[in-house]
Task: structure prediction
Amino acid sequence: MSLLIKNGQIITAEKDFFADVYIKNEKVNLIEQNLDRDAQDIIDAKGKYVIPGGIDVHTHLDMPYGEITSSDDFETGTIAASFGGTTSIIDFATQSKGKSLQDAFNIWQKKAKGKAVIDYGFHMIITELPDSQLAEMDELINNGITSFKMFMAYPDRLMLDDNTIFKAMKQAQKNGSLILIHAENGIEIDEIVKNALAEGKTAPIFHALTRPAETEGEAVERSIELAEKSGCSLYIVHLSTNDGLEKISEARKKGFPVFAETCPQYLFLSLEDMNNQNFEDAKLIFTPPVREKWHQQKLWEGLINNQLQVVATDHCPFCFNGQKDLGKNDFTKIPSGGPGIENRMQLLFEGGVNGRRFSINRWVDLTSTTPAKLFGMYPKKGTIEIGSDADIVIWDPNKMHTISSETHHMNVDYSLYEGMKIQGSAETVISRGEIIISNNKFIGEVGRGRFIKRKKGNYNF
Ligand code: MN
Ligand code: MN
Result:
């Protein structure tokens, strides 16, 4: 297998230059101007950007949710991802109570195997952690899972008490893994929800109104406090508020290894998009919820100033018809999660680069390079260097695209960004040297994706 990309403008997190790229045996083999090599395929990338493939470190494919599962599995979800220029994902495996962490790892490996079309890794969600299981964290690291997520929300299902979180953090400090936190004060939220239901407030908008911004701020602060005391590195998932952002900024100013991601839905959608008139609002039910619009500007500033380092999707789709409507009469029964895996690169390009908020290099950094560094995949993934995996996207900065559920590839019957026009889209997508998207078609083989055995991340930046 060999492939030559001619005449493109190569963009990495640090560099911007014109050169040809020669790919052999799944890897970048040469980067030079006017390369003349025989290759099985030659792509002319004149006028296009040549970027490292996107890395989405927060997805939930084939995720059980009560009686149902998220509507994309590893096949449909990773195909949709590849259309959007994402060539690696990290999905979340969830420990079942009473079972080992390894058990969850095996279950999620089975879900992905034979289906994923791009490379994939897993984070492990810890739902209980007796002392006898602490060593399992170390074992998983040897198996390529180097990040562990815990919940401060959902007391009845997933939440861990601070003692358990602290215990896991101390283990992470010892073994060099990264702790991920879903930062919402679940106890406080559940109390607010209970009162709302008692007052007959059952419409979808009350999902958002019963999870106030302060409950994220408080949980972010508490998780930072625990992380500082334990000495571990911390990564806050799906940060949605200025309340949380301020706490992260303070910790980073003190030099603590605290990182955070936000998601397109918090940059582009807000409480003002809910009309409170009908059940359509259920499409915008995900957790944390949409916030008042002013938070958006703060989150963009966070991305510009490197107080936020990553943009991931939290892709967790549920169909409006047949899934979201389980909560027709009670917002707490609406499956919480939204689709986004296909549109992340486009949305960030539109809002960030076209919107002149940050450079094209920063766009690559937020969507690929820093995720690769933090999650132990760099420089195999997340850059275009000699020896790195040839996960490369030919990005056409002028291609016009209108986002719509009519044309998207995610297995879900609505889009959060219906009708939105984007200038800039993936044209050709290459995964480990193989063209998988060409001429708006997926041409790869189902199941070709491989498990990424991740190393420990770099938390020193
Ligand atoms: Mn979450
Ligand atoms: Mn999530």
